[in-house]
Amino acid sequence: MFTGIVQATCKVINIETKAGLKTFEVALTPELTEGLVVGASVANNGVCLTVTQMRDNIVLFDVMEETLTVSNLGDLVAGDWVNIERSLKYGTEIGGHILSGHIHTQANVIEISHTDQHYNIHLGVEKKWMDYIFYKGFIGINGCSLTVGEVTKDSFWLHLIPETLHITNLSDLKVNGHVNIEIDSQTQVIVDTVAKIMAKQQAQTLDLSKQAD
User: Fold this and answer.
1) Residue 71 near residue 47, CB atoms below 8 Å
2) N or C: which end of the chain has fewer CB within 10 A?
3) Are the beta carbons of 13 and 60 closer than 8 angstroms?
4) Cα–Cα distance for residue pair 111/123, rounded to 1 Å
5) Each residue of 55-65: pLDDT tens digit?
């Protein structure tokens, strides 16, 4: 489990392609490697990955084909930077919202509006996921817990503060680039539950109507 509060952006030193997976070598900061062990979970751009090896501050992660396809990790090359968060510990302050590290889909960067007064990002996503994205709701973007801005039928806006841009890789985004999306789990459960109840009620109404005929 994670909080969506990115602790640092770290550099991908090397990517080794193997049968059915890729091994990522990421240079973590000394603070992030303290107490870290093989088998621990670390979020990379919001994707929960397992530590497979450690060489001083270089941490290795094996990433399977399915994860490479669903997330933007498949687009990374050596020299890129990823958002890093260690897994949640008992007693840790939760400043964002609970994230699982399981990416649902990717969003396309439609537009970036950057002035001295604001930094706004317009993201497009498949319509089926928009049922779970609400104005002022929570969403995970590359592992960052963020608040949703304006919403359309197939897109939404993010309004970022300087601190978020400073500590994450979101300031590196380009138009037509992609970000990892994790839908807020509580929102998804509520929406799906309401949809099931409404479908059941409609089916019951239809049955009663047929019986009346």
Assistant:
1) yes
2) C
3) no
4) 7
5) 989 999 999 99
In the chain, the amino acid numbered 186 is Q
CB within 8 Å of 57: residues ≥ 6 apart: 27, 28, 29, 30, 33
DSSP character at residue 200: H
What domains appear along the chain, each with residue ranges and CATH number? 8-86 (2.40.30.20), 105-191 (2.40.30.20)
Claim: this prediction has a pTM higher than 0.85: yes
d(CA 1, CA 156): 25
Q: Rounded CA gap, 140 and 44, in Å?
A: 12
Is residue 122 within 8 Å of residue 131, measured between CB atoms? no
* Distance, CA of 171 to CA of 96 (rounded, Å): 19
